């Protein structure tokens, strides 16, 4: 499993590459809402959960898929990009797991992601 306790886990940019990589893990009827990629790792938001993908090894063929259900989020927060700090952040606290933090680069609309999460959590 990914070690979410080591500060930010990913610096993510919108990219649909990981949509295909998690396709076999989706439940019948589960829909992908957004996919993001870092250098090797990625995160996919569906209408039921967040799937974090940790690519391992030199070849990158070994992957760890961590499923983070929205139903286990107890608190979440967003930090939008500023004038000089162009990164935005999403921080969530999961019951039984603790803090999970993702950093987004570029023009990611983290407020829209927060609205999505609020729709599932509240």
Automatic annotation (TrEMBL):
InterPro entries xref list: PHb, PHb_sf
Give the Bacterial Pleckstrin homology domain ranges: 11-120
Q: Which Gene3D superfamilies match?
A: Bacterial Pleckstrin homology domain
Protein's recorded name:
Bacterial Pleckstrin homology domain-containing protein
Annotated source species: Pelagerythrobacter marensis
């Amino acid at each position: 499993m990914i070690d979410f306790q080591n500060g930010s886990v990913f610096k993510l940019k919108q990219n649909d590459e990981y949509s295909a990589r998690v396709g076999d893990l989706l439940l019948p009827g589960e829909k992908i809402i957004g996919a993001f990629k870092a250098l090797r790792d990625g995160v996919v938001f569906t209408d039921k959960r967040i799937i974090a993908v940790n690519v391992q090894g030199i070849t990158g063929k070994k992957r760890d898929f961590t499923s983070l259900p929205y139903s286990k989020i107890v608190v979440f927060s967003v930090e939008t990009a500023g004038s000089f700090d162009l990164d935005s952040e999403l921080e969530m606290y999961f019951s039984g797991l603790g803090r999970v933090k993702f950093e987004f680069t570029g023009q990611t609309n983290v407020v829209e992601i927060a609205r999505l999460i609020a729709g599932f959590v509240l």
